[in-house]
Amino acid sequence: MTPTSPTPPSAAFEELYGHAPEGVWAAPGRVNLIGEHTDYNDGFVLPIALPQAVRAYARRRADGVLRLASTRVPGEVVELDVAGLAPGGVSGWAAYPAAVVWTLREAGHGIGGADILLDSDVPGGAGLSSSAALECAVAITYNDLYELGLEAAELAKVAQRAENDFVGVPCGIMDQMASMACGAGTALHLDTRDLSARYVPLDLAGAGLTLLVLDTRVQHDLADGAYAALRAGCERAAALLGLPALRDLAADDLPAALDRLPAELVPLVRHVVTENGRVEQTMRELAQHGPASLGPILTAGHASLRDDYRTSCPETDLAVSVAVTAGALGARMTGGGFGGSVIALTRTADADAVAKAVTEAFLAEGWAAPHVYRAVPSAGARRES
Ligand code: GLA
Protein backbone atom coordinates (compact mmCIF):
# COMPACT_ATOMS: atom_id res chain seq x y z
CA MET A 1 0.00 0.00 0.00
CA THR A 2 1.34 3.43 -0.92
CA PRO A 3 1.55 5.73 2.10
CA THR A 4 -1.11 8.43 2.18
CA SER A 5 -0.01 12.01 1.64
CA PRO A 6 1.21 13.90 4.75
CA THR A 7 -1.02 16.89 3.82
CA PRO A 8 -4.48 16.39 5.38
CA PRO A 9 -6.89 15.44 2.55
CA SER A 10 -9.17 18.45 3.12
CA ALA A 11 -6.17 20.79 2.69
CA ALA A 12 -5.03 18.77 -0.34
CA PHE A 13 -8.56 19.18 -1.76
CA GLU A 14 -8.34 22.96 -1.43
CA GLU A 15 -4.89 23.02 -3.02
CA LEU A 16 -6.09 20.91 -5.94
CA TYR A 17 -9.47 22.44 -6.61
CA GLY A 18 -9.23 25.97 -5.16
CA HIS A 19 -12.15 25.59 -2.75
CA ALA A 20 -13.04 23.58 0.35
CA PRO A 21 -14.97 20.29 0.17
CA GLU A 22 -18.67 20.39 1.08
CA GLY A 23 -18.35 17.23 3.07
CA VAL A 24 -16.56 13.94 3.68
CA TRP A 25 -18.14 10.52 3.12
CA ALA A 26 -16.62 7.18 4.18
CA ALA A 27 -17.28 3.59 3.09
CA PRO A 28 -15.40 0.63 4.62
CA GLY A 29 -13.75 -2.52 3.32
CA ARG A 30 -15.01 -5.87 4.62
CA VAL A 31 -14.16 -9.41 5.57
CA ASN A 32 -16.72 -12.14 5.13
CA LEU A 33 -17.01 -14.48 8.12
CA ILE A 34 -18.72 -17.25 6.15
CA GLY A 35 -20.86 -17.61 3.01
CA GLU A 36 -18.33 -17.50 0.15
CA HIS A 37 -19.40 -17.63 -3.50
CA THR A 38 -23.00 -17.87 -2.37
CA ASP A 39 -24.09 -14.31 -3.26
CA TYR A 40 -24.43 -14.84 -7.02
CA ASN A 41 -26.42 -17.98 -6.21
CA ASP A 42 -29.05 -15.96 -4.29
CA GLY A 43 -27.67 -17.42 -1.04
CA PHE A 44 -26.57 -16.18 2.38
CA VAL A 45 -23.48 -14.26 3.50
CA LEU A 46 -22.22 -12.99 6.86
CA PRO A 47 -19.70 -10.15 6.43
CA ILE A 48 -18.40 -7.52 8.84
CA ALA A 49 -17.13 -4.08 7.88
CA LEU A 50 -13.52 -3.20 8.68
CA PRO A 51 -12.32 -0.03 10.40
CA GLN A 52 -10.38 0.75 7.20
CA ALA A 53 -12.38 2.89 4.76
CA VAL A 54 -12.29 4.91 1.56
CA ARG A 55 -13.08 8.57 2.17
CA ALA A 56 -14.42 10.91 -0.49
CA TYR A 57 -13.88 14.65 0.02
CA ALA A 58 -16.30 16.28 -2.39
CA ARG A 59 -18.00 19.38 -3.69
CA ARG A 60 -20.80 19.57 -6.21
CA ARG A 61 -20.12 21.34 -9.53
CA ALA A 62 -22.72 23.04 -11.68
CA ASP A 63 -21.02 22.52 -15.05
CA GLY A 64 -21.33 18.75 -15.56
CA VAL A 65 -17.60 18.16 -15.08
CA LEU A 66 -16.36 15.34 -12.85
CA ARG A 67 -12.86 15.85 -11.49
CA LEU A 68 -11.28 12.92 -9.68
CA ALA A 69 -8.08 12.77 -7.67
CA SER A 70 -6.64 10.29 -5.18
CA THR A 71 -4.13 10.76 -2.38
CA ARG A 72 -2.56 7.51 -3.62
CA VAL A 73 -1.76 9.09 -7.00
CA PRO A 74 -0.45 12.54 -6.06
CA GLY A 75 -0.55 15.15 -8.80
CA GLU A 76 -3.03 13.36 -11.08
CA VAL A 77 -6.47 14.87 -11.71
CA VAL A 78 -8.75 12.96 -14.09
CA GLU A 79 -11.28 15.30 -15.69
CA LEU A 80 -14.40 13.79 -17.24
CA ASP A 81 -17.64 15.02 -18.76
CA VAL A 82 -20.50 13.34 -16.87
CA ALA A 83 -22.79 13.32 -19.92
CA GLY A 84 -20.06 11.65 -22.01
CA LEU A 85 -19.24 8.78 -19.62
CA ALA A 86 -19.42 5.34 -21.24
CA PRO A 87 -18.15 1.85 -20.31
CA GLY A 88 -14.64 1.38 -21.68
CA GLY A 89 -14.04 5.13 -21.71
CA VAL A 90 -12.15 5.39 -18.41
CA SER A 91 -9.32 3.14 -17.25
CA GLY A 92 -7.33 2.62 -14.04
CA TRP A 93 -8.51 3.67 -10.57
CA ALA A 94 -10.75 6.46 -11.94
CA ALA A 95 -12.96 3.85 -13.66
CA TYR A 96 -14.54 2.92 -10.29
CA PRO A 97 -15.82 6.37 -9.27
CA ALA A 98 -16.71 7.18 -12.90
CA ALA A 99 -18.65 3.90 -13.08
CA VAL A 100 -20.86 4.92 -10.17
CA VAL A 101 -21.62 8.33 -11.67
CA TRP A 102 -22.40 6.68 -15.04
CA THR A 103 -24.72 4.16 -13.34
CA LEU A 104 -26.66 6.86 -11.49
CA ARG A 105 -27.10 8.78 -14.72
CA GLU A 106 -28.16 5.63 -16.59
CA ALA A 107 -30.76 5.00 -13.88
CA GLY A 108 -32.27 8.40 -14.70
CA HIS A 109 -31.12 10.38 -11.66
CA GLY A 110 -30.65 14.09 -12.26
CA ILE A 111 -27.00 14.35 -11.38
CA GLY A 112 -24.15 16.53 -12.59
CA GLY A 113 -20.50 17.05 -11.85
CA ALA A 114 -18.36 17.11 -8.73
CA ASP A 115 -14.83 17.63 -7.51
CA ILE A 116 -13.75 14.55 -5.57
CA LEU A 117 -10.56 13.64 -3.72
CA LEU A 118 -10.34 10.03 -2.58
CA ASP A 119 -8.29 8.90 0.41
CA SER A 120 -8.11 5.27 1.51
CA ASP A 121 -6.55 3.05 4.12
CA VAL A 122 -8.22 -0.12 2.78
CA PRO A 123 -5.38 -2.34 1.53
CA GLY A 124 -5.78 -2.81 -2.22
CA GLY A 125 -5.57 -6.22 -3.91
CA ALA A 126 -5.95 -7.98 -0.55
CA GLY A 127 -9.44 -9.40 -0.99
CA LEU A 128 -10.80 -6.80 1.45
CA SER A 129 -13.11 -5.09 -1.07
CA SER A 130 -11.21 -1.87 -1.62
CA SER A 131 -13.03 -1.41 -4.95
CA ALA A 132 -16.49 -1.88 -3.44
CA ALA A 133 -15.53 0.62 -0.71
CA LEU A 134 -14.47 3.10 -3.39
CA GLU A 135 -17.72 2.62 -5.31
CA CYS A 136 -19.85 2.93 -2.18
CA ALA A 137 -18.01 6.07 -1.01
CA VAL A 138 -18.82 7.75 -4.33
CA ALA A 139 -22.41 6.44 -4.29
CA ILE A 140 -23.22 7.97 -0.88
CA THR A 141 -21.37 11.15 -1.81
CA TYR A 142 -23.57 11.61 -4.88
CA ASN A 143 -26.67 10.56 -2.95
CA ASP A 144 -26.11 13.48 -0.58
CA LEU A 145 -24.67 16.03 -3.02
CA TYR A 146 -27.65 15.60 -5.36
CA GLU A 147 -30.23 14.75 -2.67
CA LEU A 148 -31.22 11.52 -4.42
CA GLY A 149 -32.79 9.98 -1.29
CA LEU A 150 -31.64 6.44 -2.11
CA GLU A 151 -31.53 3.81 0.66
CA ALA A 152 -28.43 1.77 1.52
CA ALA A 153 -29.59 -1.29 -0.47
CA GLU A 154 -30.36 0.83 -3.54
CA LEU A 155 -26.93 2.44 -3.35
CA ALA A 156 -25.32 -0.98 -3.01
CA LYS A 157 -27.12 -2.09 -6.18
CA VAL A 158 -25.87 1.03 -7.97
CA ALA A 159 -22.32 0.21 -6.88
CA GLN A 160 -22.68 -3.42 -7.98
CA ARG A 161 -24.08 -2.43 -11.36
CA ALA A 162 -21.16 0.02 -11.75
CA GLU A 163 -18.73 -2.85 -11.22
CA ASN A 164 -20.68 -5.31 -13.45
CA ASP A 165 -21.49 -3.06 -16.40
CA PHE A 166 -18.80 -0.38 -16.43
CA VAL A 167 -15.74 -1.98 -14.82
CA GLY A 168 -16.69 -5.38 -16.26
CA VAL A 169 -16.41 -7.64 -13.18
CA PRO A 170 -19.45 -9.95 -12.74
CA CYS A 171 -19.41 -9.75 -8.92
CA GLY A 172 -22.36 -10.46 -6.63
CA ILE A 173 -23.85 -7.97 -4.14
CA MET A 174 -22.05 -9.00 -0.94
CA ASP A 175 -19.17 -6.53 -0.93
CA GLN A 176 -21.27 -3.49 -1.79
CA MET A 177 -23.98 -4.41 0.76
CA ALA A 178 -21.33 -5.01 3.42
CA SER A 179 -19.75 -1.63 2.78
CA MET A 180 -23.08 0.20 2.66
CA ALA A 181 -25.06 -1.53 5.38
CA CYS A 182 -22.82 -3.16 8.03
CA GLY A 183 -23.03 -1.86 11.59
CA ALA A 184 -20.42 -1.43 14.33
CA GLY A 185 -20.23 -4.37 16.71
CA THR A 186 -22.31 -6.60 14.45
CA ALA A 187 -22.09 -9.00 11.52
CA LEU A 188 -24.57 -8.59 8.68
CA HIS A 189 -26.63 -11.67 7.90
CA LEU A 190 -27.79 -11.00 4.39
CA ASP A 191 -30.18 -12.91 2.19
CA THR A 192 -28.78 -11.92 -1.20
CA ARG A 193 -32.03 -12.84 -2.97
CA ASP A 194 -34.16 -10.07 -1.47
CA LEU A 195 -31.44 -8.19 0.45
CA SER A 196 -33.21 -8.68 3.76
CA ALA A 197 -30.64 -8.08 6.48
CA ARG A 198 -30.28 -9.06 10.13
CA TYR A 199 -27.71 -7.53 12.43
CA VAL A 200 -26.03 -10.17 14.57
CA PRO A 201 -24.17 -8.85 17.66
CA LEU A 202 -20.51 -9.87 17.45
CA ASP A 203 -18.54 -8.82 20.50
CA LEU A 204 -15.27 -10.58 19.76
CA ALA A 205 -13.19 -8.60 22.27
CA GLY A 206 -15.78 -9.22 25.01
CA ALA A 207 -15.51 -12.95 24.34
CA GLY A 208 -11.70 -12.79 24.61
CA LEU A 209 -11.33 -13.36 20.86
CA THR A 210 -9.39 -11.76 18.04
CA LEU A 211 -10.17 -12.07 14.35
CA LEU A 212 -6.84 -11.87 12.54
CA VAL A 213 -6.72 -10.87 8.89
CA LEU A 214 -3.65 -12.32 7.18
CA ASP A 215 -3.17 -10.71 3.77
CA THR A 216 -1.12 -13.25 1.82
CA ARG A 217 -0.07 -10.48 -0.60
CA VAL A 218 -0.69 -12.67 -3.61
CA GLN A 219 -3.30 -12.09 -6.26
CA HIS A 220 -3.21 -14.69 -8.99
CA ASP A 221 -3.83 -13.55 -12.55
CA LEU A 222 -6.55 -16.09 -13.16
CA ALA A 223 -8.83 -14.35 -10.66
CA ASP A 224 -11.12 -12.46 -13.06
CA GLY A 225 -11.70 -15.11 -15.71
CA ALA A 226 -11.94 -17.86 -13.10
CA TYR A 227 -14.57 -15.96 -11.09
CA ALA A 228 -16.74 -15.49 -14.18
CA ALA A 229 -16.32 -19.18 -15.09
CA LEU A 230 -17.37 -20.32 -11.61
CA ARG A 231 -20.40 -18.08 -11.70
CA ALA A 232 -21.36 -19.40 -15.14
CA GLY A 233 -20.93 -22.98 -13.88
CA CYS A 234 -23.32 -22.34 -10.98
CA GLU A 235 -25.89 -20.78 -13.29
CA ARG A 236 -25.63 -23.73 -15.70
CA ALA A 237 -26.11 -26.19 -12.83
CA ALA A 238 -29.19 -24.34 -11.58
CA ALA A 239 -30.64 -24.35 -15.11
CA LEU A 240 -29.96 -28.09 -15.51
CA LEU A 241 -31.73 -28.74 -12.22
CA GLY A 242 -34.66 -26.54 -13.23
CA LEU A 243 -34.08 -24.14 -10.32
CA PRO A 244 -34.05 -20.33 -10.31
CA ALA A 245 -30.71 -20.44 -8.45
CA LEU A 246 -28.61 -22.91 -6.44
CA ARG A 247 -30.01 -21.35 -3.28
CA ASP A 248 -33.21 -23.23 -4.09
CA LEU A 249 -31.52 -26.62 -3.76
CA ALA A 250 -32.19 -27.97 -0.25
CA ALA A 251 -29.41 -29.86 1.54
CA ASP A 252 -31.59 -32.97 1.71
CA ASP A 253 -31.98 -32.96 -2.08
CA LEU A 254 -28.26 -32.50 -2.72
CA PRO A 255 -27.25 -36.17 -3.24
CA ALA A 256 -30.00 -36.78 -5.81
CA ALA A 257 -29.24 -33.50 -7.57
CA LEU A 258 -25.52 -34.31 -7.80
CA ASP A 259 -26.38 -37.59 -9.57
CA ARG A 260 -28.08 -35.61 -12.33
CA LEU A 261 -25.21 -33.20 -13.01
CA PRO A 262 -22.14 -33.50 -15.23
CA ALA A 263 -19.03 -34.34 -13.20
CA GLU A 264 -17.44 -30.91 -13.53
CA LEU A 265 -20.41 -29.17 -11.89
CA VAL A 266 -20.71 -31.55 -8.93
CA PRO A 267 -18.09 -29.94 -6.65
CA LEU A 268 -19.38 -26.43 -7.40
CA VAL A 269 -22.91 -27.29 -6.41
CA ARG A 270 -21.76 -29.21 -3.34
CA HIS A 271 -19.79 -26.18 -2.16
CA VAL A 272 -22.64 -23.70 -2.65
CA VAL A 273 -25.24 -25.84 -0.89
CA THR A 274 -23.00 -26.80 2.04
CA GLU A 275 -21.73 -23.22 2.34
CA ASN A 276 -25.26 -21.85 2.65
CA GLY A 277 -25.70 -24.48 5.37
CA ARG A 278 -22.57 -23.23 7.13
CA VAL A 279 -23.97 -19.69 7.23
CA GLU A 280 -27.10 -20.94 8.94
CA GLN A 281 -25.05 -23.18 11.24
CA THR A 282 -22.95 -20.13 12.18
CA MET A 283 -26.10 -18.21 13.08
CA ARG A 284 -27.27 -21.06 15.34
CA GLU A 285 -23.85 -21.40 17.00
CA LEU A 286 -23.60 -17.67 17.61
CA ALA A 287 -27.01 -17.62 19.25
CA GLN A 288 -26.46 -20.72 21.37
CA HIS A 289 -22.74 -20.83 22.19
CA GLY A 290 -21.20 -17.50 21.14
CA PRO A 291 -18.38 -16.68 18.73
CA ALA A 292 -15.75 -18.99 20.32
CA SER A 293 -17.69 -21.94 18.85
CA LEU A 294 -17.28 -20.83 15.23
CA GLY A 295 -13.75 -22.14 14.58
CA PRO A 296 -14.59 -25.56 13.11
CA ILE A 297 -17.20 -24.07 10.76
CA LEU A 298 -14.64 -21.61 9.39
CA THR A 299 -12.09 -24.35 8.82
CA ALA A 300 -14.69 -26.60 7.17
CA GLY A 301 -15.60 -23.66 4.89
CA HIS A 302 -11.97 -23.39 3.85
CA ALA A 303 -11.76 -27.11 3.07
CA SER A 304 -14.79 -26.74 0.81
CA LEU A 305 -13.25 -23.79 -1.03
CA ARG A 306 -9.97 -25.68 -1.37
CA ASP A 307 -11.27 -29.11 -2.38
CA ASP A 308 -14.60 -28.39 -4.09
CA TYR A 309 -14.70 -24.79 -5.28
CA ARG A 310 -10.93 -24.64 -5.90
CA THR A 311 -10.59 -20.92 -5.20
CA SER A 312 -7.81 -21.34 -2.68
CA CYS A 313 -4.11 -21.40 -3.53
CA PRO A 314 -0.91 -22.61 -1.82
CA GLU A 315 -0.51 -19.36 0.12
CA THR A 316 -4.05 -19.30 1.58
CA ASP A 317 -3.90 -23.06 2.29
CA LEU A 318 -0.62 -22.70 4.17
CA ALA A 319 -1.88 -19.68 6.15
CA VAL A 320 -4.98 -21.64 7.21
CA SER A 321 -3.19 -24.84 8.18
CA VAL A 322 -0.39 -23.09 10.07
CA ALA A 323 -2.86 -20.80 11.87
CA VAL A 324 -4.92 -23.77 13.05
CA THR A 325 -1.84 -25.75 14.08
CA ALA A 326 -0.54 -22.72 16.00
CA GLY A 327 -3.73 -22.49 18.06
CA ALA A 328 -6.33 -20.62 16.00
CA LEU A 329 -9.86 -21.87 16.72
CA GLY A 330 -10.50 -21.87 12.97
CA ALA A 331 -9.39 -20.16 9.76
CA ARG A 332 -10.44 -19.72 6.15
CA MET A 333 -9.75 -17.61 3.11
CA THR A 334 -12.21 -14.75 2.73
CA GLY A 335 -13.50 -13.09 -0.44
CA GLY A 336 -13.14 -14.16 -4.04
CA GLY A 337 -9.95 -16.16 -3.53
CA PHE A 338 -6.92 -17.07 -5.68
CA GLY A 339 -4.85 -15.21 -3.10
CA GLY A 340 -6.02 -12.31 -0.97
CA SER A 341 -6.64 -12.67 2.74
CA VAL A 342 -7.24 -15.40 5.29
CA ILE A 343 -9.17 -14.80 8.50
CA ALA A 344 -8.15 -16.66 11.64
CA LEU A 345 -10.28 -16.67 14.79
CA THR A 346 -8.04 -16.90 17.84
CA ARG A 347 -8.20 -16.47 21.58
CA THR A 348 -6.78 -12.97 22.04
CA ALA A 349 -3.92 -14.40 24.13
CA ASP A 350 -2.90 -16.58 21.14
CA ALA A 351 -3.24 -13.97 18.36
CA ASP A 352 0.41 -12.86 18.30
CA ALA A 353 1.69 -16.44 18.31
CA VAL A 354 -0.62 -17.39 15.42
CA ALA A 355 0.43 -14.34 13.38
CA LYS A 356 4.09 -15.12 14.09
CA ALA A 357 3.75 -18.79 13.11
CA VAL A 358 2.12 -17.89 9.77
CA THR A 359 4.74 -15.21 9.11
CA GLU A 360 7.57 -17.63 9.80
CA ALA A 361 6.02 -20.30 7.60
CA PHE A 362 5.75 -17.80 4.72
CA LEU A 363 9.36 -16.68 5.15
CA ALA A 364 10.48 -20.32 5.23
CA GLU A 365 8.80 -20.80 1.83
CA GLY A 366 10.66 -17.74 0.51
CA TRP A 367 7.39 -15.76 0.31
CA ALA A 368 6.88 -12.17 1.49
CA ALA A 369 5.62 -11.89 5.06
CA PRO A 370 1.82 -11.54 5.18
CA HIS A 371 0.35 -8.23 6.30
CA VAL A 372 -1.50 -8.76 9.56
CA TYR A 373 -4.57 -6.79 10.72
CA ARG A 374 -7.10 -7.25 13.51
CA ALA A 375 -10.66 -7.06 12.25
CA VAL A 376 -13.08 -5.17 14.50
CA PRO A 377 -16.73 -5.18 13.29
CA SER A 378 -17.14 -1.55 12.25
CA ALA A 379 -19.69 0.89 10.85
CA GLY A 380 -20.90 0.87 7.25
CA ALA A 381 -20.93 3.83 4.88
CA ARG A 382 -21.67 7.21 6.43
CA ARG A 383 -21.21 10.96 6.10
CA GLU A 384 -18.41 12.08 8.41
CA SER A 385 -18.62 15.86 8.11
C1 GLA B 1 -15.91 -11.33 -4.48
C2 GLA B 1 -17.19 -10.78 -5.09
C3 GLA B 1 -18.39 -11.06 -4.16
C4 GLA B 1 -18.44 -12.52 -3.76
C5 GLA B 1 -17.08 -13.01 -3.27
C6 GLA B 1 -17.06 -14.48 -2.99
O1 GLA B 1 -15.57 -10.63 -3.30
O2 GLA B 1 -17.09 -9.40 -5.30
O3 GLA B 1 -19.59 -10.66 -4.80
O4 GLA B 1 -18.91 -13.32 -4.81
O5 GLA B 1 -16.05 -12.71 -4.19
O6 GLA B 1 -17.89 -14.79 -1.93
Structural class, please? alpha+beta
Mean pLDDT: 97
C-alpha Rg, in Å? Answer: 21 Å
The portion of residues forming beta strands comes to 15-25%
Please give the share of residues in helix. 25-40%
Bound ions, cofactors and other small molecules, one mention each: alpha-D-galactopyranose
The CA-CA distance between the termini, in Å, is: 26 Å
Q: Say how many strands there are.
A: 13
The succession of helices and strands, N to C, reads: HEEEEEHEHHHEEEHHHHHEEHEE
The main pleated sheet reads as: 6 strands, mixed
> How does the overall form come out from the CA principal axes?
globular
Walkthrough of the structure:
There is one protein chain. This protein is of the alpha+beta class and 385 residues long. 39% of the residues lie in helices and 23% in strands. It is built from 11 helices and 13 strands. The strands form 3 sheets. It has a 6-stranded mixed sheet, with helices on both faces. It has a 4-stranded antiparallel sheet with strand order 10-11-9-12. Helix 3 crosses helix 5 and helix 8 (266-289) packs antiparallel against helix 9 (295-309). The protein is globular and about 60 Å long. The two termini are 26 Å apart. The mean pLDDT is 97. It binds alpha-D-galactopyranose. Residues 36-37, 39-40, 171-172, 174-175, 335-336 line the site of alpha-D-galactopyranose (GLA).
Which structural traits does this protein have?
globular; single chain; 11 helices; 39% helix; 4-stranded antiparallel β-sheet; 6-stranded mixed β-sheet; alpha+beta; 385 residues; 23% strand; binds alpha-D-galactopyranose
